[in-house]
User: Fold this.
Amino acid sequence: MSSLSSQPYKGTRDYYPEDKRVQNYIFNTWRRVVELHGYEEYGAPMLEPLDVYTAKSGQELASEQTYAFTDRGGRIVAIRPEMTPSISRMVAARRQELGYPARLFSIANFMRYERPQRGREREFWQLNCSLS
Assistant:
């Protein structure tokens, strides 16, 4: 019987309390700044249909840099590699209800299947600001 690895998945990292404190400080600073400028926070699912990334970003992102799989319902889904398709979908769904310009932001994590490089990982966090 083999033992389980204590290492995180390649291109990701663990956030121990001291790391999480730094991350929270950065995220809270981002949040404070964008809220001062009238942005409101939104959240979106980690999974989206793969075709939204193919339509928006092309075949390279969808086929080479995305973690995609077929779910139990037979749908091809992807772990989000970026936020643009999600926020576009959300704005389109509520275009009649949103006040314009809609100032929206999120602080979300993403996954891209890329070769990890120094200072760059497959999993990353990003501040996203959208003015619709």
Summary: Residues 17-36 form the longest helix (20 residues). The chain has one domain: 17-131. The chain is about 35% helix and 25% strand. The mean pLDDT is 92.
